[in-house]
Amino acid sequence: MSSDELGTERGPLRRALAAGRDLVLVRFVVLRTLGLVYFAAFLSNALQIVPLVGAHGLLPAAPAVDHLVQTSGRLGAFRQLPSLFVFTGVSDTALLVASWLGVLLSLAVMLGATNAVVMVVLWGLYMSLEHVGQTFFAFGWEIQILETGLLAAFLCPVKTWRPFPKAPPSPIAIGLFRWLVVRVMLGSGLIKLRGDACWRDLTCLDHHFETQPIPGPLSPMFHHLPHVVHAAGVLFNFVAELVAPFFAFGPRRARLAAAVVMIGFQIVLISSGNLAFLNWLTLVPALACLDDRALARILPRRIVQWAKRETIEDEPTRASLWASGGYALVVVVLSIAPISNLVSARQEMNASYEPLHLVNTYGAFGGVNEVRYEVILEGTLSEDPDDPGAEWRPYELSSKPGALDKPLTWITPYHRRLDWQMWFLPFGTAEDNPWFIHLVAELLAGTKEARALFVRDPFPERPPRFIRADLYVYRFSSDPNRVWDRDFAAPYLQPTRLEDAALTTYLTRRGLSVGAPTAE
């Protein structure tokens, strides 16, 4: 591209292209943060996806994918369900290969790999897993990581892996990240204004820290803060989600102030609970609102000097400009539906409008529960579940409340998928959740996949004869010797055994079967 095409040194196009020179460190931190998110997401899949959607999982994915291929052909199935598993089949081996390959590539990104092909492969692998994950992948951050991950490809060159490529990134690509954070934050803020009245009454945080899906070690402290602090927190929430986004494309000082507010907001959320990798993922486009002059004051001096030494060109490559510019046109067209959703009185919380999840609408915590209900699973070896002397042993998940003295853990950005789904159970009946009934059946059969989902197997020698589930109200305890107090609320699932005809009928109607017991 010649000087005549660009105009003079002081021309607007030249200045716009030269802006990429002030985004080298921004690209570096954006990609490293995204690498961390991908690493946590793929690792959680590698360690959990087989017992969840594998051949003997709670919701096996293979039957639905195989049926789609049989009825629509492979190409037709791929158009409806873009996933590599349409071609490979959804075997346990395929699920694990995709997950562990994602772990390795995301680790490479964390360590500095800056390559468009790597980012596209990560995007394709995660989309393949997300499209067969069913209920266990039905969260806003699953489509958000896909939109973010594909955008990241437009920050990277194709022919090099090094942390600081010779040319700076395309400012257009950085602008697409800023547009993403605008939609993420506005979506979350507007869904709160239109949702639970406690947000408008400034009382939602009086309950949120105690009733959120997976509390963390600092959650009790946040919960016990005075109401005036909680009310101020709600106001800060609205500033971060409804005010700051409007300055993401503003003058430098306003943009940096908006970035600090949005980043600080995500850090507070990370410290106050375990919202999977959602807040870490939202940090990625928020960081794109910074610039190198700001980051140079924060990052280690050797990294700043390394960036200056390696980035020898003043402007992005023509290829990166054409690629990011072309994709920006796609984003503009696909943004029509998300914008319509944002301004609609019937706003959806999280939604995608096409199979590739390129441009989506987002939102979080439109409602907050005032009471925390927990479904507690217990089994017994007794032949008579009504025997007062029967010993009922609880199944403990790694991060969900159970035992009253179990310490709270900080696991974010790692995602405990079964723990999250258990949080939703009290909103319906056991029969509304086929995966839960299947889990009970698999535990009664003693299959290794189901047992592996729990931190401890209370029946290591042989499976229980009966399993039941009860509903409890949990609240943070004031007793220093325990974390929780609880009160019995109601039965959730009556004592059930593997031979019960009702259990067999329920599973058969939903195409679910029970695996073979584990040989010890």
Short précis:
This protein is α+β, with helices and mostly antiparallel strands and 520 residues long.
Q: Give average pLDDT, whole number.
A: 93
Tally of discrete structural domains: 2
Order of helices and strands: HHHHHHHHHHHHHHHHHHHEEEEHHHEEH
Low-confidence stretches: 1-10
Beta percentage is 5-15%
The main pleated sheet reads as:
4 strands, antiparallel
Number of helices: 23
Class of secondary structure makeup: alpha+beta
Number of strand elements = 6
| Approximate shape | globular
The radius of gyration computed from the alpha-carbon positions, rounded to a whole number of angstroms, is 25 Å
| End-to-end separation | 69 Å
Strand order in the largest sheet: 4-3-5-6
Share of helix, binned: 40-55%
Q: Work out the oligomeric state of the chains in this entry.
A: single chain
Kindly describe this structure.
The chain is α+β, with helices and mostly antiparallel strands. The protein has two domains: 14-361, no CATH class; 372-509, no CATH class. It contains 23 helices and six strands. The strands form two sheets. Strands 4-3-5-6 form a four-stranded antiparallel β-sheet. Helix 3 packs across helix 8 and helix 6 (92-110) runs antiparallel to helix 7. The longest helix is centred in the first third of the chain and has 30 residues, at 24-53.
Question: What is the topology?
Answer:
Layout: H1 3-6, H2 12-18, H3 24-53, H4 62-80, H5 85-88, H6 92-110, H7 116-130, H8 140-153, H9 171-194, H10 197-200, H11 205-211, H12 219-223, H13 227-243, H14 252-272, H15 278-287, H16 292-295, H17 301-310, H18 318-334, H19 336-343, E1 351-352, E2 360-361, E3 372-380, E4 393-394, H20 417-424, H21 434-445, H22 448-451, E5 466-476, E6 484-496, H23 501-509
Antiparallel strand pairs: 1-2, 3-4, 3-5, 5-6
Helix pairs in contact: 3-6, 3-8, 3-15, 6-7, 7-8, 8-9, 8-15, 9-13, 9-15, 9-18, 13-14, 14-15
